[in-house]
Amino acid sequence: MTQKVLSRLLAAVTLSTALVYPQAASAAAPAPVLHDENPSGHFGDWYTGAVPPNASKDKPVILFVQGLHSSYNTWYTTDGYYDAAYNAGYRTAFVQLKDADGTGGNMWTNGAKLAEVIKKVAEYYGVSKINIIAHSKGGIDTQAALVHYGAHPYVNVVHQLSTPNKGSELADMAYSNWAGWLADILGKKDDAVYSLQTSYMANFRAQTDSRSEVSSTKTYMAAGTGDDGWFSATWFGHAVLPGEDDGAVSVESAFGLPYGIKSFTKDVSHGQIAKASQTWDLVKPKLQNASMKERANKVSEDKLKEATVEESSVILRGGEVEDTASETFYLESGIDKLNLDTMTSSEDTIVTLISPSGKKYEADLSKKSKSEDEPGIFQDAVHHFIEVEEPEAGEWTLEVEGSDDAFFMVGSVDGGEEAKVKASKKVFKKGDKAKISVDLGKNEIDQSSLEKANLTRSMNGEKASVLDEVKFAVKEDEITGNFTVPTKPGVYNLSFDITGINEDGEPFTRSINYNFAVTNSDGELEK
Q: How much of the chain is in helix, strand and coil states, percent to nearest 5?
């Protein structure tokens, strides 16, 4: 999984060059007009863009929907879609979802309000149907509005830009044992992030994809495969996400609608996919007026199947920081490179990596960065980067010094061993039996160091606490855990390390996080 990270280095240089010389819009559009539906906040407000002089009724009205922890400024900015649409003669509108007030809303909260705004926009412009362009989670909020809140008769085409239709493993991490402390301090464990966990989204898919309303609207899907350059937050996001991804959403998730139409894939990051110079010319040909004849009412022949096998070559650590926190892990010989991203909430926190021989690696201050330009789950974290070429084999130690802080370490191993993780499914009913297994290939499993897996429940505003421990049975190069899922509906994480022994007798550590959901008798989840 981490091989893809370093294989993108040349592509990252190409991307950074492209960003220095973006394609400029012909003219800046006049400021949009606010329709102030919420005087005490932003949630529910909407804007209408200026009507361009070359506007044509042959072109559809476009409503832009922002993503996670964003506002309408996603589109109304330098290199934004608003300027591009204005110059191309499109009438436009923008919505403010709950995220614009600081705390993200789930698809149910945002979807209900978005359905109201969709109808208002269509009425304002005097059209029967509009088009929607949605970035990231905005595509899921749009689906909820169309399918569950009655807005489907008013929308002709939806074009998703990197929408996590199957959720994001970064959201799983926010509720894991390792990252929960930091996510609590950063204040990003809200309803929006909770709903983006992969098992929550698997349940949303089950509630949504079989309904007849999905055939009323044509939905295009676009995915990114790039990042924002070396040692950026999206660059390290590749380590956690499976397959190709844009640093926040995997391609598999972005193309996760069985009835969606694949529009394009481009080597850009999650944020850059919503920039006009990068993707407007790819989206524009897909926009259609209300005279649509073709319906997206059948499952694509090449629809993606539910993944049952994933690979892990990451090492995860995290917890509270009061004075000094220390964590250890093992690396085997033959690794090309170890890339470490240790996230904290404070820039004053010091991160040091110590090799088995005692050599110290301090986080490169020139590379320490805060991902302020990329709204997301860990956008407010300070990233402390450490890179080690051909790391020595043995026990490594991470030391974190600070106060009133927390940390989350993602270790990306290039060229090392991989663990294959097999899980039965993502969504269960209470009382169901679950099974997870980890295969280390030709390597043995160190039974003496095998710890129990901690089962935690995803909760907003609370520290993760261990509800139960799952024991594993060991059989040569594979471990298997069989357990009964909790009776209380909700989303859970099973987090654990596995230590393998390679053919040279060297131990190595890999971390596993299994995110799953338990529904009630009506197939619903509870927080």
A: 25, 35, 45
Cα Rg of the chain (Å, integer): 23
C-beta of residue 93 within 8 angstroms of C-beta of residue 64: yes
The residue among 25 and 424 whose pLDDT is bigger is: 424
What number is the average pLDDT over the span 266-278? 96
Task: Name the nearest CA neighbour of 525 among 147, 108, 111.
Answer: 108
Q: Is 518 left (phi over 0), alpha (psi -120 to 50) or beta?
A: beta
CA distance 505 to 347: 39
> What is 413-458 written as a DSSP string?
EESS--EEEEES-SEEETT-EEEEEEE-TTSEE-GGG-PPEEEEE-
Q: Which pair of structure tokens corresponds to residue 508?
A: 């190595």
| Residue-wise pLDDT tens digits, 421-439 | 888 789 999 889 999 988 8
User: For residue 291, is it left (φ>0), alpha (ψ between -120 and 50) or beta?
Assistant: alpha
Helix, strand, or coil (residue 385): strand
User: b/e string for 138-147 if b means 16 or more Cβ within 10 A?
Assistant: bbbbbbbbbb
Strand 46-48 vs strand 62-65: parallel, antiparallel, or unpaired?
Answer: unpaired
Nearest-angstrom CA–CA distance, 306 and 95? 33
Closest CA to 354 of 402, 394, 314: 394
Element housing 469 (H / E): strand 466-470
Which pLDDT belongs to residue 15? 35
| DSSP 8-state symbol, 213 | G
In the numeric block, which tokens belong to residue 26?
Answer: 């012909």
CB 266 within 8 A of CB 222: yes
Please give the torsion angle defined by the CA atoms of residues 142, 63, 241 and 368, in that order, rounded to the nearest 10 degrees.
-130
* Of 453, 447, 422, nearest in space to 500 by CA: 447
Name the helix (H) or strand (E) containing 382.
strand 382-389
Task: Annotate 221-249 with DSSP letters as a single string.
Answer: EEEE---SSTTSHHHHHHHHS-SSBSSSS
Q: Rounded CA gap, 359 and 160, in Å? A: 48
